[in-house]
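wait is this the right file?? whatever heres the structure
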């Protein structure tokens, strides 16, 4: 995303765009994985840093420990610049727009529609989100463009569906109540996702942004990863895009880590992937047959799975 744009097995993925926004198709498409479906799939999206900036960075020891112990996609590229098109690719299989100030709605098939149609529950857990079901503009440090669900006609046209967008803090009460959804998008706010300086500062070293994101992951995501109740889940942690100067395959190379009981340990993949591949993986893991946009022809990411 541009510098002014904000976004149980455990799975961190950066997927590949097949013929959309940079890069072509990559592998033969296969069906959903044969193993049992995880109870939950979590997608965590961080901001604006490329693979070489984060892998091996002393500012991100926790993220790098996950990358070393679990599965890492080493040839994963975002689809475009700035942010918003990558969030749409992760949820619609299309870039839709490259206007971070987009104020319209999106009627295309999307992840929320596919999940609901298959009887699967979903939520977006958003740090600094103003209120349950909020569909309005930015309320900093919450940035609407990091919440693609807030644009979908399926969501904004239904208060009951919009109520699936909630402040991040609700994830722990949902966990305690046994009410976590089958799929969850998790988005830190702009001060904790690598986008802006932590604590509202106007100037800081880039390592300060990375350190804030790493601390947020360890404080908020590690308790989910290590919770026994989420042993049959998948968590996906990825980056929306690389730095603006990296336009390879549309949005630059990003780091994606995958982990959980369904995922191979200490595994590295050199296969080319983009965000539409991650969308396909989410749907395949949850045994959903509706694949929006280019996720329908995107290559499987089953090589990461046990």
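ok assuming it is, sequence goes like this
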């Amino acid at each position: 995303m541009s510098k002014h744009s904000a976004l149980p097995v455990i799975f961190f993925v950066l997927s590949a765009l097949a013929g959309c926004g940079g890069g072509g198709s990559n592998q033969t498409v296969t069906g959903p994985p044969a193993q049992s479906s995880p109870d939950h799939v979590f997608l965590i999206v961080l901001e604006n840093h490329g693979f070489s900036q984060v892998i091996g960075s002393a500012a991100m020891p926790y993220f790098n420990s996950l990358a070393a112990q679990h599965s890492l996609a080493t040839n994963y590229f975002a689809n475009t610049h700035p942010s918003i098109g990558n969030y749409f690719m992760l949820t619609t299989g299309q870039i839709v727009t490259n206007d971070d100030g987009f104020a319209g709605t999106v009627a295309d098939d999307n992840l929320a529609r596919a999940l609901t149609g298959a009887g699967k529950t979903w939520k977006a857990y958003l740090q600094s989100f103003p209120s349950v079901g909020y569909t309005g503009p930015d309320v900093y440090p919450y940035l609407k463009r990091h919440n693609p669900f807030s644009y979908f006609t399926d969501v904004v046209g239904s208060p009951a569906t919009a109520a699936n967008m909630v402040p991040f803090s609700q994830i722990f009460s949902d966990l305690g109540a046994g009410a976590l959804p089958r799929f969850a998008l998790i988005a830190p706010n702009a001060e904790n996702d690598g986008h802006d300086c932590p604590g509202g500062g106007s100037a800081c070293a880039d390592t300060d942004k990375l350190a804030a994101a790493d601390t947020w992951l360890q404080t908020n995501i590690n308790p989910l990863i290590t919770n026994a109740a989420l042993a049959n889940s998948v968590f996906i942690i990825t980056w929306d895009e690389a730095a603006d100067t990296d336009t390879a395959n549309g949005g630059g190379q990003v780091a994606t880590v995958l982990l959980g009981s369904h995922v191979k340990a200490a595994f590295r993949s050199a296969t080319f992937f983009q965000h539409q591949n991650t969308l396909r993986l989410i749907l395949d893991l949850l045994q959903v047959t509706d694949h929006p946009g280019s996720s329908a022809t995107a290559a499987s990411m089953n090589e990461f799975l046990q």
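The beta strands are 40-46, 71-73, 122-126, 165-167, 183-187, 233-239, 256-259, 267-269. so i think its the right one actually
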